[in-house]
Amino acid sequence: MQVRKKIAIVATVPVVLHVFMREHIKRLSDDFDITLICPGERADVEALLGEHVHFLPFAIERKISLVQDLRSLWTLWRILVKNGYDCVLSLMPKSGLIAMLAGLLSRTGCRVHIFTGQVWATRQGVGRRFLMGLDQLLASAATHLLTDSFSQRDFLVSSGIVRASKIQVLGKGSISGVDTERFKPDFETRTELRAQMGIAPSALVYLFLGRVNRAKGILDLAAAFVQLVEECPQAHLLIVGPDDDALDEELVALLGSRRSQFHRVGFTSTPECYMAMSDVFCMPSYREGFGSAVIEAAAVGLPAMVSRIYGLTDAVEENVTGIFHEAGDVQGIQQAFARLYQDKTLREGLGLAAMGRARQDFSKDEVVGEMQKFIASIV
Questions:
Q1: Which CATH number does the domain housing residue 206 bear?
Q2: Residues 230 and 173 in one domain
Q3: N or C: which end of the chain has fewer CB within 10 A?
Q4: Total count of domains within the chain
Q5: Is position 182 within any domain?
Q6: Mean pLDDT for each 10-residue chunk of the chain (379 residues)?
Q7: In whole angstroms, what is the distance from residue 113 CA to residue 115 CA?
Q8: What whole-number distance in Å separates Cα of residue 236 and Cα of residue 204?
Q9: Domain that residue 111 falls in
C-alpha cells in the first residue's frame, strides 16, 4: 500500500484558511495527508477537517515581536522535524517567513509560499526597506513561490524580492477562484435586502466589500460619494466589512449629511447577498495582491470601479469589465461614479462582460485544479 505524502499548511489566522484555502484543502486531501497549523482551537477549523485533514494549534503573532517570533520559529521547526512533512505551504507574510525558515532548517523538501500582496508597497524609508528585506529572506528560504496575479509577480521581480524563474502564477490568477454556484445573480435576495435597507428598486447601489481601513481607500470613496450625490440623487453607497482602523466615525462625519443614501454593514459571512443587491463594485485600494472580491462581484454581474494598481489590473479588464481611476484621486473616483451612474448601457455591458470573464477565467474548479496539479508535480 502506497504511503500518503504529508503537507503542512501554515497560516497566521484560521479565517484565511476558510476564505482562501477551503477548496484547495478539500482537493489536496484526496491525494495527501494535510495538517492545518495556525493559532486557535480545533473548533476554529472544524469545518475544514476530515479523514485526511488534521489540525495542530500554533501560536504566532501577526505583528513583529522578535522574542515571540523566535519562539514560533523554534516550535514550528520541532513540529516539522517530528512529523516529517514532505511539503510546507504558507500564505500571509508572517506565517510565510516563519514557515519557510522552519522548513529550511528542518530540511523539508518542498517549501511553497503564496504571495498575496505586500504591506511595504505603500511604505517609505527604513520601514519599507526592512519589510522588503523580510520578504527577500522568505523568498530565499522557499523552494517554490506563487502569487495570485501577473502584475504582482512583475512587481516582486522588479523590486528585487525574487528571481523571475522562481515565482509563478497558476492559471490566469487569483488564490482560489470563484464559486459560481454561490456568486451569481439573485433577484429575490436583491429585492428582499433592498426592502430591508430602505433602498428603492430603481436606486443605483455602489458597493465596497472588504476590510475597512485606510489602505483600501475607503475615505477617498466616501469623499467622492459626497460630491456625487449632489447630481445623482438615486445613488447609494453600501460599505460592508469589519472596521480595521476605527474609521466608522470618520465615515459618519464625511457622509452624515447623506445618511439616507449611506449604508453600513459589518462583517458578513454572506458577501454574495450584498453583491446581488448592488449595481457597481468599488475597490479604491492603494495596494492589492489581486482583488478576489472583485471577481466574485463580477460573477454576480457587477462592473468594477477600481484603482489602477498592480493586482487590480489583473482582476479588471479596462473598459471591458470595469473602469479605473488613480489611487487616492478623489476627483477621479467621483468622475468614475458619475460615468457609471449616467451611462446605463455602459454599466450593463461591463457587468455582462465581467460575469463571462469571471466564469471562464477564474472559476473555482479551474484555479483549484491548477493548484492540485502544481503540488502533485513538486511533492
A1: 3.40.50.2000
A2: no
A3: N
A4: 2
A5: no
A6: 88 92 95 96 94 94 83 96 97 94 97 94 92 96 96 96 95 92 96 96 96 93 88 92 87 80 92 98 95 96 97 96 97 96 96 96 93 95
A7: 6
A8: 6
A9: 6-177+364-378
